[in-house]
Structure formats: C-alpha cells, structure tokens
Amino acid sequence: MDRLNDTDNNVYIHQEVYVPRPSVLSSSGGYTGFVNGIDVTNNLVVDGSNETKDVVHFMLTKPVILQIANQYNQTSADATSDDDNSSSTSIMNFSLIPSETGSKTTETPMDHTAMMMPPQ
User: Fold this and answer.
1) What's the CA gap between 116 and 104, in Å, rounded?
2) Is residue 64 predicted with pLDDT exceeding 80?
3) Where along the chain do its domains lie?
4) CA–CA distance from 6 to each of 1, 10, 13, 66 (Å)?
C-alpha cells in the first residue's frame, strides 16, 4: 500500500477483454463491469469497431485501484477461514455482465495514444 499511496507514484491499469459478436454477452449492446465486486462500469470503454468482437477496456485510475486494494486488504484481514470468496482468493478479478444501461459499444476504434500517462 505504501507504493500505491506514494504521491509520486502514478498507477494506471488497462485490462482488455474480448467478447465475440454475436453472442449472448454482446446482445444487449452494453456492459456492466466489476473488479473484485466493485462496480467500475464508469471506467469501461467498449470498442465495437471490429465486426467479430467487442473489445472491452477496463481503464482503472489510481483512486479506483486504491479502493480495490483497500477492500482486498480489509477482506484479507477479516478472513478467518479458507472459504471460496473470490475477492479474498485473487487480487484482481475482472467480471462483465451484459447491460442495456452500462457502457455502450462505440463504432470507432479507440485512440490508445490519448490514454498514455504523461512523462514524468
């Protein structure tokens, strides 16, 4: 946590998930996303420019990562048995659910250069 809390340390996580089209998961036209049970739908970008798949980008900024890390540490501290709780057995568990009200598919490809972290 010291490294995450360090103000000089910029942290950014970008995870891509490929969803085939058409499929049950892509049929609603949007997605709700979770990391370790925390709703991160506002941090999803869906690139639908490919005809055969949606590319769902989890774009996690430092405040979101800190929230996930704090929850993980709390869950780990509270764990008293080896139960099958996904948030205590894996550090980051990415989940998607089809949603008509979640992040929507765009038809234009993402510009990854605009998302790069500024040089220090």
Assistant:
1) 22
2) yes
3) 2-76+86-102
4) 8, 8, 16, 11
